[in-house]
Input
Amino acid sequence: MAKIGVFICHCGENIAAKVDCTKLAAAMGEHPGVAVSVEYKYFCSDPGQESVKKAIRDNNLTGIVIAACSPRMHEATFRKACAEAGLNPYLCEIANIREQCSWVHTDSDMATEKAMDITRSMVEKVKRNNILQPIEVPVTRRALVIGGGIAGLQAALDIANAGQEVVLVEREPSLGGHMAQLSETFPTLDCSQCIMTPRMVETAQHPKIRLLTYAEVESVDGYIGNFKVRIRMKSRYVDMSRCTGCGDCITKCPAKKISSEFDCGLGKRTAIYTPFAQSVPNMPVIDTASCIYFKNGKCKMCQKSCQLNAINFEMQDEFIDLEIGAIVVATGFQIQNTAVYGEYGYGKFPDVITGLQFERLASASGPTAGKILRPSDGKEPQNVVFIQCAGSRDPSKGVRYCSKICCMYTAKHAMLYAHKVHGGKTHIFYMDIRAAGKGYDEFTRRAIEEDEASYIRGRVSKVWQENGKLMVRGVDTLLGKPVTVVADMVVLATAMVPQSDAKEFAKNIGIAYDEYGFYNEAHLKLRPVESSTAGVFLAGACQSPKDIPDSISQASATASKVLALFSKEKLEREPVIAINNEATCAGCWGCVLACPYNAIEKKDIRDRSGRLIKQVAFVNPGLCQGCGTCVSFCRSNSLDLAGFTEKQIFAEVMGL
Amino acid sequence: MITQERYRTTVKELLANGSIKMAIGYRLGSTPDRRRPLFIRTSEEADQLVLDSTCMTNLSGYLVTEGLLSDEKKVGIFLRPEGIRSINILAAEYQLNADQIVIFGFDSTGRDVRPLDGRNVGEFSKLLNEIKEHPLQIVKEPLHWRIEKMNAKERFDFWQEEFSRCIKCYACRQACPMCYCRRCIVDSNQPQWINTSSHTLGNFEWNIVRAFHLSGRCVQCGNCDRACPVNIPLRLINQRMANEVLDGFDHFAGLSPTQEPVLASFKKDDTETFIL
Output
């Protein structure tokens, strides 16, 4: 005979303001099988939980229903309370009468009715709940960090410094990511490479970090603590065990006019190249699309120049299979293709450049050795116009969100320009100055007050060329009239967008993403660095636009999550897994195909003499994630999901 | 008649030399245009074999009778092209080993019966692909045209009317070669998802479940249609589902013995967002 306890939480006013909890408690008290039905202001509080435990012990309850907030909030809390009171934690169910009832309804009577329906259906379910035991799975203590930008480096170093193994995968030939491209960093104006390169070297030399550059994650299988990851090592055509990074091959390479990705097209590189002088590892790769040998079958100048025979044109892609316990995704961002703004003339006028190109001009390691020279004629520009939100906060052509870093880097650009070109003038078209952060507002004020950046609040409608000058037509909304500024160079603060293959990659490793392709966190406020998939964590700009301090904080946060996971020998998993009824299974293997986790195997059923009678499906409890895909596929209803059995769901529906 | 005689001889030969242990064919039924299944184990039984244009039933369902194929000996069977597709599906769903099946293929136009070349299911793949590319122009009965012209409401009313006659005898299930489950969902009563009584709701539930379980698997052999004692045009429902699956997924049921079931397979590069 069921003895169910129903505990109705007011959640302060959150539930009680709309749902008549007294009426609900009385109605539930009369429902068959309910032994206790009480209400309280906050059941999640310490006295609240104590009262639940006392009720379980005093009445020998066989199951409880907490009518309160979403199970995502406090299911774990009340399961723990159950266990402490000696009741199996899986005999606790949450009736969500807050998010799914009181918060979304205005009519009090009808909300109370609905709360009764929801609670009653959970009472009916819990009557049929079974005792379940959590599943224990071993943890592989090795982390995979995907992306060798500042976020990936930080996460890798933090995990490795705590003594755990890390594999760092970077798809470019060198570590560094976008931060290596920057000149100085706000708000302190320290040189980006000066603070970045020591981290790169530390990572490469760390005994706990295995560095795989020019490599991509091919596939991810498995689950938290037990991922199986396949890495494709793209062929560099340079034998890393022989190469010393002397650079002879680079000097000899005759294909010298290739636009450099690292310099955003402002500089040139050779076909065999390292992206930048401080590359880690400092070993070149051959870009087969530009290499003369790969195009014409003749040349091999690099091979001839190499004294160590490190160059191998026959090299093939290789695959590495790894056992991984946790994954940090730090795949970063790219800047939006500014060609969508035809009116700004990007691509048409050489002196209209992006913010990232300006970084390369201002960088000491850049194509102009740090001199601000305009791309068209190499002259020093005397008037520079910066256009903020060239893509961000623009639902019509760009993206709806704020790219977060542009206000700060535009102020920084104006400062760097003022420091390098003393007589120069800067105009900045802006929508709002968003400088929230430690030392950020002071920084933008400094740009205005000390470095005389002239901020014009308004948008730019058109940029055109006249007599060798760029004419920028915009509006000054504070004056309320249109303005035209004559400029030698225009810098666009382009939007930060996800990597072009972000969505594909997310599908490959099984994490969720938003409409743009930024990766979704498990909870925006409470679990900001965890992805929707257990054991996969998010760091840096792959989740949303971020500046360096934010990326680093998030990376360290993922490291702490990974280390917490690695602190245990074994993981406890929810016992919500599929179970097969071998008597009725027809062995059609539809479930084997349908299972996205490869968790279903074929099992032989033999008689006493060992003769094979039939084969049936068997669900591996270690691999099953409890998604229920197989259950919905099974035509004979042989598969069922523990914790959500057909019987339980049926009772739940009928309880409504 | 020539086809029939030739096949009788073939069956006798194969039985005599032990190539097959049994052949499943047709014999005369209770009325002139009805045929019954015939299980031929001996030369005498082979003389009862009838093969003419009224041999409509898709016999492939008899192959999954428990124990029939477990001795790994071969069984011959008379099949129309739809029946051959059934063998492919049953093989794809691991209910039988296609190499154990010796096919005596035939087809008919009007009253003429002609044999189809081939014995193993693989030898018919060209024929089946042709059928996919050029689906047989099924002579659309007036009912078909009527339903196509209906709007959703009229169609619903029409089927409600048809299903109201259903007596839940499950003859459609018993006749279908695809309904091989050891326990059908309607026989599961813990919980009883589908109402057993034959009122409109329960009848709808059963027929919709049946349509879904057969989508991507039905070969339009018409066994269900002919088995229905109250003449519900069940074939039209399955025909429609087959068209949906063909249009939506380019899936033509029973093309090969390794074809993946359409409702159980997915591609990771699917453009829909529900594939993570």
Q: What stands out?
A: Chain B has ten helices and five strands. Residues 106 and 115 of chain B are 4 Å apart (CA to CA). Residues 142-249 of chain B form one domain.
